[in-house]
Design goal:
The structure is a homodimer.
Chain A: E1 3-5, E2 9-13, E3 29-34, E4 50-56, E5 68-69, E6 80-81, E7 94-105, E8 108-112, E9 121-127, H1 141-151
Chain lengths: 160, 160
């Protein structure tokens, strides 16, 4: 069975492909351009504070002979399956980011928190609703470690 | 530009297609069968308490001439764009559910919270991580109303 999708827009400002960039998804804004004819489908989205952006990680390289690997290729992290972390080299390279919605203006959406390169095709947008909130999710020790490296502290509910 | 995907598995137990069913996604368990050859890719997923299930809403009927509609076809809810609520009749009918992970056994995953019919093709699974938690999301009044109808009370952070 094959499924075919057509992008509804693309990322026009966001993560640069230059690996030396100091771009930070949590502080810098990304901009998504939705196809002009779909602009009416965005009506009301601005009433949400957050949205899911679902995109196609077009630079991914899936290798079906390597289903287990270390997140980010880091030797200090354990081996896990491709579906057990958020890396891009997965069977279907669908990307998912929870984003703060900064502005919706016509077919142009400004967000914060998007982890997608400029030029990335966007497949869908969904409002982030109450039922998407998990108050105290449990994650593996290695994911907590990455969080602490990025944010500089533990989530309040994890404890010391 | 066209994008082609191949499902990685399917829902083998879940929402019945019978509309008279009293099935409740929040209390009843769903079961996903991932293709046997992808079982190694699940290694480590069980260390998470929650996962995103991304699926193909194969019964959706998208109508590009009706980009604005009322959620669930309910006359008491306002008109919003197809991308501003979680209905299935969207340009790319990708479904997204935050699920509690009950059990992972080989290539069989038992979850709670999945909003997908039996037989639904599954496209991707992603662990729910700390950065997916939005502590106090803002939603429109109509979405709060639906929440209250379903859960019977307001989220604690919304207030009386």
């Amino acid at each position: 069975m094959k499924i075919t999708l057509t992008p509804i827009g693309r990322v026009v400002k966001g993560l640069p492909q230059d690996k030396n960039s100091s771009w930070n998804r949590w502080s810098e804004e990304s901009v998504i351009e939705i196809d002009q004819q779909l602009a009416p489908a965005l009506k009301g989205l601005e009433e949400y504070s957050h949205i899911f952006v679902i995109y196609w990680m077009h630079l991914a390289e899936y290798d079906s002979s390597r289903l287990i690997t270390r997140p980010r290729g880091r030797g200090d992290l354990p081996e896990v399956g491709l579906l057990a972390f958020r890396g891009r080299n997965r069977p279907n390279p669908i990307g998912l980011s929870v984003c703060e919605l900064i502005e919706l203006k016509g077919n142009i959406i400004t967000v914060r928190g998007l982890d997608a390169y400029v030029g990335t095709p966007v497949l869908d947008l969904k409002p982030y609703d109450y039922y998407d909130v998990v108050k105290r999710p449990k994650v593996p020790a290695w994911a907590l470690k990455l969080w602490e490296e990025g944010v500089g502290r533990r989530p309040s509910w994890v404890g010391p």
